[in-house]
Predict the 3D structure of the following.
Amino acid sequence: MNHLLQDLRFALRQLLKSLGFSAVAVLTLALGIGANTAIFSVVNGALLRPLPFKDPDQIVRVWHTPPAKSFPGIPTFSVSAANYFDWQRDNHVFERMAIYNYRGFTLTSTAQPLQVDASAVSSGFFETLGVAPLLGRVFSPEEDRPGHTNVVVLSHRFWQEHFGADPNLVGHNITMDGTNFLVAGVMPGSFRFPDYGPMPVQMWTPMGWTDKERAVRGEHHSVVIARLKPGVDLKQAQAEMNTISSRLEQLYPADDKGWGALVVPLHQDMVTDVRPALLVLLGAVAFVLLIACANVANLVLARTFARQKEIAIRTALGASSPRVFRQVLTESVFLAVIGGSLGLIVAAFGQRFILSFLANQLPDSVMVHLDLQVLAFTACISVLTGIFAGVLPAIRLAHSDVNQALKQGLGRTDESSASHGTRRILVVVEVALSLVLLVGAGLMIRSFQQLQRVAPGFESHGVLTMTAAIARAKFAQPTEEVNFFEQTLRRVRALPGVEAAGVIDDIPLDNGGSHQPISIEGQPEVAMADQPEVDVRLISAGYLRSMHIPLLRGRDFGDQDVSDRPASILISESMARRFWPGEDPIGKRLTLTFSPKQVREVVGVVGDVKLDSLDQERPSTTLYVPFDQLASTEESNFSSFPMTLVVRTATTPASMVSAVTNAIHEVDGTVPVRDVLTMDDVLTKSLSQSRFNTLLLGVFAGLALLLAAIGIYSVLSYSVRQRVPEIGIRLALGARMTDVLRMVVIEGMKPTLLGVAIGVAAAFAMGRLVASLIFQVKPTDPVTFLVVAALLALIALLACIIPAYRASKVDPVIALRNE
Amino acid sequence: MSDASQPLIQITDMTKVFYTDEIETHALSGVHLSVNKGEYVAMSGPSGCGKSTLLSIIGLLDTPTGGRYFLNNKAVENLDFAERARIRNQEIGFIFQSFNLIGDLTVYENVELPLTYRQRMPSAERKGRVMEALERVGMAHRVRHYPSQLSGGQQQRVAVARALGGKPSILLADEPTGNLDSRNGEAVMELLADLHREGATICMVTHDPRFAKHAQREVHLFDGKVVAEEELKKLLADVGA
């Protein structure tokens, strides 16, 4: 301990003595360690830290797997009510099972009507997750029956924000959609499941399905969670669900043919979208740290060789090799720990930056903090970095020739060719690692460029969108909802600056929308499972004009597409090509399987629109149903639903927000408005993951490039200093300045080019790791490789120029006198 | 410090050959040397005669190519690095021509340094030894100074204190006055003479006959061999030195 304190004291003195060296090394390490800590804190929160539920490893999600023929490229699907109840009844592997879906309410017991995101949950939902309420109780099985469902459990945040955390609220009523709901309980703050988009659910209410709803097998709207029985593993659960699914396929071929089940750990399922990007970024940032380590090792090597004499004296006085080794390592670890401490500051900013991009991708249950685990990680990588950076210098010094070092003058020591070789190898490693990162960033940039070139099928500029959050019980009849929006649109279209306005149930690129099976007139009738699926959107007249979606054939929806007229539809170009190749689709007829009473006629063909995302690979087979015909399509148990207004403006869309909101409220002041966005915002949001990957990998690659340049520069500068007498002799013997320049540049470029060659090979080998993150770019894209290699070589050349210039300015008289 | 009747250093037929590319340089060629405990031996000879090489081998900083070397009756010519470090630390005190103090350590810390490499020496004992050594060389009032704040003579006295602090069996001094002016050089020689009078065993390399006279015995080296004084004179005359 005493020795350690002595070494630490000496290390501190050394750092203070060479402030320039210390600052460069500490900053390099702070950047490397800080970036790692920031990414790790997100990875820790998203992928490593258990969910805040009881025995979270036992909780799974059970998805449907749809028939691949009808749902190309869609691996999992929501669950139908009847299948869920069969799964629940027939399985022997789950201790509990629960189902939930989204439900919107309008809270009217507050000053302003408020749209509330709720989750309708089946009996046993909270028990499956193993969470207890903070206040009050959760739902009883009786409350999951129709007629008993006017009861809610509030989220902690909602209770705090809207009811001032009033503990007396439990047992009292709140009014939503004009009905009283009993507040049964309040959940703890850590419970934020499930989430719908960026906001966590605000309250829970019982599912309360009727017998009729419980028997629906062909419609898939809900999500299932389950808790594995003790001793049952995922494989066994999957096998059991496969057996049950096969049985259901045989029993209900019309609905279930081709539908399977997939059991996925809940945690894994929640972070599926973000996991590949986080792991690639974690790898990238580890590369940055390795480069930082190589750089600091180089700096430490240069400095310790300047201290060779001091180490020789220590050795002469009896310091053993391990003792010298330990001292050098203590210094580099001390350096790294200071770097790590500063890195925490870098990490705090970095984490905020990362989360600002990832907020939409991370489930709300995932909590990201710089907590003890992250601090332990930082401490570990700091120490490891110090060891890694110090081990080579320590080995070299602990085994240097003491006698030789002692014979040299006080101020001068000669570096051995072996140690110089070590430093060159470190540069090769740095360059190779940098090239891999630069290639990764280059591929991301190319991919991002490709994405930006994708035509979404509409013109986003100049379009304002906002959702009129109509609650389920707002309108008793479809005509009421149609009337509401007709009146609203009339007012909006009359506003100065509005060019066109319409409504749609789910705007493109916003992760919503439904798929439905269809049967085409004139084609053989098949079971629902064998029917083709298409995307279905409900739109009003004016939507296509607002979005500038081109009408390619036929006509747009108009005044004639109302409930008492023949049912009409518009279809996308891809849908026309898929179902009527080489034919004119106008006048063709089909039936939406979930609305079998209506035969619909194709009245127009419109341009394809990217609905899911810009990198959507599947064809946009979309069918548009006129909103005004809603009354003729719906069943008797109608529930009203939100629609999004899409308004094309002649002025800045943002300037129209209050006017459009007022138009809605002039028709009905109790309708909440939410998700006010321009279509440009929606487009930007849809690119956020890709932009984030590109930006962060770009930052890491830039950092790597900078560190590699510093590495090349420092090695070459040191080498030139060592070779001053030799350069003096060369100049004395007649070498020209250009000869010296060339000699030094070649010396610097040799390890660079070797590093580039190794880096190219490594980047080729690692290409598949980023394959899932890039769009329309091959992981071995030759343009990216060439540009990156050239860029790296150019930066290396620039890093060589200053030392080369200095070498060419050596005064041979002075150099030889010193020799 | 010693029993003068016993040989502390016993070297027989020692050789040292340096190999550089295809050239062999015989730095020592069959050296026989014995130094008794309490003896003060000066090793002299012209530049390149092998005296510093011999001192390095005696100090276990280097290993011989051939021959035997007994230190305190223990064969030490083939010890591993760690064992040589341990013996250097406990048995040998070095005084270098260029002082070799560590510039980033204070006078106190420089003298303390070899003691910190010893296992389990209580800090109180360490402190006692450091202060005793510094007082012995008259530098106790400069404990907080750094080497750069001292004159050459003072630095060499600190180096002597560092060599004494470990209470070694032998002090090895390599041209201890080489970087000093004559007044400071003389003072250091008197300090070594005092130490010898107190019982220290000293081996000193010097090319200056004035300082060699301080020793009890003078060993002359020429072309890697120990020669008698008369023979050395003749050899030097032959080569015109």
